[in-house]
Known about the structure:
Layout: H1 2-8, H2 35-38, H3 42-56, H4 90-94, H5 102-124, H6 133-158, H7 170-173, H8 182-197, H9 215-232, H10 238-254, H11 266-270, E1 281-285, H12 298-302, H13 324-327, H14 335-340, E2 341-344, E3 351-354, E4 374-378, H15 379-392, H16 396-410, H17 415-418, H18 422-427, H19 431-442, H20 449-456, H21 459-467, H22 493-496
Antiparallel strand pairs: 1-4, 2-3
Amino acid sequence: xKNRISIILGLAAVLATTSCSKDFLNxxxxxxxxxxxxxxxxxxxxxxxNGIYQSLRSNNAIGEGSGLFSEERSDNTGRNDNQSNxxxxxxxxxxxxxxSNTNLKSHWVAMYQVISRANLxxxxxxxxxxxxxxxxxxxxxxxxxxxxxIYFHMVRKWGDLPLVNxxxxxxxxxxxxxxxxxxxxxxxxxxxxxxxxxxxLPNFQTGAxxxxxSKAAGNALLGQVYLTMATTIDNGKRNDNLAKAKQYLTxxxxxxxxxxxxxVPYSDVFAVEKKGSCPELIFQIVYKQGDATYSSSIAAxxxxxxxxxxxxxxxxxxGGNVTGDLVKEYEANDPRKDFSIKFAEASNVKDWFITKxxxxxxxxxxxxxxxxxxxxxxxxxxxxMLAEVNMYLGDNTTAIQFLDMVRERAGVPTYAxxxxxxxxxxxxxxxxxxxxxxxxxxxxxxxxxWYDLLRTFTTEExxxxxxxxxxxxxxxxxxxxxxxxxxxYPIPFDEYKLDPVxxxxxxxx
Length: 509
């Protein structure tokens, strides 16, 4: 039974034991105390909420190293190594993913661990007396946001899912081992996020609380959820969902602490020294520079052999590989290209690698203990979603205004001017494709691209989109493998076999 819990939903409770909000990254042994006896004080609840954030950091969940499950599934990054780790990482970008893939299983379990920790807080918070009711509501809102965030990631990858919104006893696990329809998952996500946007949380977190949930984050995520439902769920509510997407994305936009986006330099968004003050950042996973345990390794891990732009740590491999398809996507003189990618000349590389995340400071040192936070939500993303939703609502004028905010900051021509260029207009003949392009070059390597493709294209269109690309731009990963089944991931085999009827496999696997 113990193994069943860990395999199915990661339901074993993991409690946090930090001492203050500033140190919510640091955790101790979660098995030292039972749940029944744990929740006694407000601080106990805070520590348990901190434990949710801690699980969020896992590279098997949505931490900085989780690009395998998103960017490598898209046309942005990939790998030409089909041998390492039994070739299992290669399966994601090669569209040859098997239900038995251990990386896939680890992703599933890590995601449900975040949900489990959120459920633990929400199922026990009423046991504790709070001096200030707003404090209690704030903690609950944080837990609900994080639960909604993970379910949103999962429902787009797997579709129907086991829906668990409370702490389960051992006897309740079997009864909850079944897939609920994706519409039910979205209903739960929306319910949680409505509580967040109506909570007493601040519009933005500051100081030691940067990295915690805010109302701005709640509105941004809820807007994206409604936009995704409008474009991917056939429930007869497309226009209503688009209107709500616009409502909540606009609410987030109106909370901003800057005027025009061009006031915030693109490089500032990723500068380690400005991560606590950059007004474009809405929600980020916090990492500690110089800390062997809680530092960021994204800069060092992406660096290719012979290069020093990202980190002082010497690299020996190819780093964060970039597809030739993305390299060709950048427009001429787009400064985001030179900031985000670079060609490595080492004999064992001779390829493009990611430079968007840098910390070559002495504080990070030769061990590469970087201070990069991993950004999950920022204003350029929100602005481009506003362009998208207005386009779907038939208001192209407003859509283009939002699109041009991002293009103006980047220093590239406005949309109207760009459309006079034959190369641009041929490649992006519609406003829809122009917005998708802008999201790609603006948000590259921030784990948005796969979800953007799913939201933009039907399954049939997505198959045609990949098959129309140049195989030479993708190395040994075979674009011809992409088929309708690849719209979703397979249910991990260990989950499916526990109840093949109620944990039915996705089509094609």
